[in-house]
């Protein structure tokens, strides 16, 4: 029906038209953890219960709070209303994720909380565990409850009160009228001058009003006609007001000051749960006073100054956004202002990764701050409006809105809890050096070995094993078809110069040892990003460091790598037996480049197979020569077979093609034909074979479920949300997002649907200290032949490069 997403929002949701209409809303969701979601739910309910208790007892138990509420017209009349206080129709808590973990609320919005449109819009979007999916139902049910409290009659009139000068709120009345439609309710949109009171009845346009649903600030109620009479009618039960004007008690930001006073005094009016919730989620607050001048000026970067009745971030001053001279001007302005302010501790907000999608087109990775407005309707957590901004303040000029969901918890990072973490890390890495010859303690200046471990749900682990083995069978089948027709596929795969040697198959085994790199998306789905068929890294970590970490941390969980060594040996022996049919195998070389990471893996393979009944020679491939018999030789010894931890395409790239030619006589344990499945264009070939019906129904389902759509033609993807990869790249080199491209590459690249990779929060340690950061787990599953053999997990940036961390993986 609508050509653009923004058109739907304009006409179906009464969105305010603006020049930014195409880039205010993004379909790309933001996800929080289940733990963070529970924190928002539990703490907001606890705090709301406390606030309602204060409102209900403002003239008795909590009467000492009245002095904290600034004066405004009708204050005394409102605080002395006799009518029983009903459930609060709706309230919004402005929540944030703390930089170092946890959550906090910057303020409460009890009076006239906005952002209902944002929640309704995002609640209709397709999002895993969508927090807002039931918001519409909560809203309708709350209105039904409000109507049921009225004297029984056939038709009820509800006045939607908003200031016509505030277009966003005025348009919101149109939306509410549309969304809350009931057979026995008639909505009337009114402004502050359209109401009057006759014989204790509230009238609008000559019609009696039963309920006033207001989007109008209580402290400005002096602008509403006959408001004192409206309050009287309300007190007599002749009209209902949503929200009850007494919610100004909860709206007053000095409530934070009061609550902290109670906490500091260990006041018995607060329960232990309420005290703990205040300590964890409310920034320390006190009333502004010029006596605090020295403190305010000296602690600029640690405080925020905001008005007690402020809205829309007006007159909110965050110290670290100002120079010292500017801050002095701020102080003078606040001191001389005719409205009251509070001083609040500054809490650092987590600067989160998200994707900004203007009208569903290109996705732009950005860093932004999320304001998570948590809605409670009649005391129940009902949804959240997430508004993003490039700074600490949420401002209309640059904010954008995304859906929000709760990410799957099939994979988690379990943080260790030890007093001397650094000493333990040193011990682990020292053992790695002496027992495994591993000196890669750091990746750049970050600690490479993580003591925190990754835990997989058992069901997801079992699916991972199944998917690895099922796709291995499909990949093997596909590779054989390609090898039988290598002349047609060599150019697509980027192996034109290697097709001659690739077609030589001296074993029918799919691979000796390979690694499939899996991502998990926010819904917990497994997605295979690529396969490293030739030179899979991580063996030292998976076999030796796993064991060291288990022993030093006393971990009792099941490791995924217990059988890795045995399976590697078994597959090694199987391929050597195949090669014995070609010629005698006595001397086997284990070769790598001189790059330190390559040497780790080559050395690990040597440690695994060195007790087999062969003579092994280990060294650099650059030291090899070609013997008179056309075989590779190393240190004067002619090699019958080699395990080469060296990519086949590098022989041409590094001008040692004469050594590659010798692989016809010195057989490669990791078969040369694996260069076919090593190419990232291999997945594109598979999707072409899908069209041609070369797979059975079960194979087709597995490919569509686990492999992102991949093509050599960008138009085939039918999306703007893709990445490009060079067909033979490694370690994330050359991988780019669609939005980063100035022009499309002409050849030797593939286009692949972007996977929304689930991110986790972890403490990242470096020689500069500790910081909390988002990391993206990539689970590498080893296969020997076509059998699952183990796991190597890396935690890194969105595109995994060579500065990632290694984390051992265990099963729940």
From TrEMBL:
Ranges in coiled-coil conformation: none
GO molecular function terms attached to this record: ATP binding; ligase activity; metal ion binding
Ranges for domain Glutathionylspermidine synthase pre-ATP-grasp-like: 444-811
Keywords: ATP-binding, Ligase, Magnesium, Metal-binding, Nucleotide-binding
Circularly permuted ATPgrasp domain: residues covered: 135-344
InterPro entries: CP_ATPgrasp, GSPS_pre-ATP-grasp-like_dom
Name this protein carries in UniProt: Glutathionylspermidine synthase
